[in-house]
Amino acid sequence: MATNKRVGSSAKQAGGGSRARRPDTPSRSLPEKGNRGLRTAEDPRHKRSDDRPAAGRLFPAAKVGSALDQVDELLCQALETEQGGVQVYRTALRCAQDAALREEWAGYLEQTERHVRLLNEVFRARELDPETETLGRQIVRHKGQALVAAMEMALRNGTPEAAQLVAAECVVDAETKDHANWELLGQVVGKLQGEAASVLKAAYDEVEDEEDEHLYHSMGWARELWIQSLGLPAVLPPPEERRHVKDAVGAAEAKESRLELVGERG
Questions:
Q1: Dihedral through CA 240, CA 244, CA 250, CA 252, nearest 10?
Q2: What's the structural domain count of the chain?
Q3: Does residue 72 form part of some domain?
Q4: In this structure, is residue 10 part of a structural domain?
Q5: pTM given for the model
Q6: Residue 110 maps to which CATH number?
Q7: Contact assessment for residue 87 and residue 224, using Cβ atoms and an 8 Å cutoff
Q8: Which residues of 120-156 are buried (b: 16+ CB within 10 A; e: fewer)?
Q9: Is the pLDDT of residue 56 over 60?
Q10: Is 75 domain-assigned?
Q11: Under a CB-based contact definition with an 8 Å cutoff, are residues 56 and 131 in contact?
């Protein structure tokens, strides 16, 4: 829309004559918003011959219809969470002081790397580019990088024990998002059809219990490491690991049992 406006006749009369018009300025394209995230309005400067987005640009998650676009947004966030999780665990292992914790995180790192491969298979079955960028995915990446940066800061400036505690908290943060992603993917399996549905279901069936274990065991480690840092009796490894907890009910029962375990050790 042009920025200049014609002055009304009453204004001319009041000023005793006409007033100069400001020069026209070219219109600018504004970002378009939709249920598929934020993208740049059509602009020939951003077109590429291979129809792929320029680096750093945002574009719709899929071209399969608006009813399923949010599924692809979830898949993009899930893949980014797993990829970020690999970096989180690699950094957390540098912070780990407890031998049992180091062993557990090493196992979770291997499983997370496997989850990345499984999700890439889902992308292929759905004919979705694994490099698809969305605003939500960029935010997930930013948060994952922040967790890694927090652990790096603790390694540089804190004690080994403090760095281990920070790492435990960062793992809980990462696994909370990861667990939520897979829980939602389990809900949408029934909405998909064909090969994509079968590939996603197989991935979900393999990953579900592992994600439960990652979250609830990590929460137990973070709690007990904090208790230890306060000079109070801690249960290490945490009862969640001793009981092989893989659901919220088991996690609650394990947390209650720690008082008994502390009494036994006292």
A1: 0
A2: 1
A3: yes
A4: no
A5: 0.73
A6: 1.20.1260.10
A7: no
A8: ebbbebbebebebbbebbbebbeebeebbebbeebbe
A9: no
A10: yes
A11: no
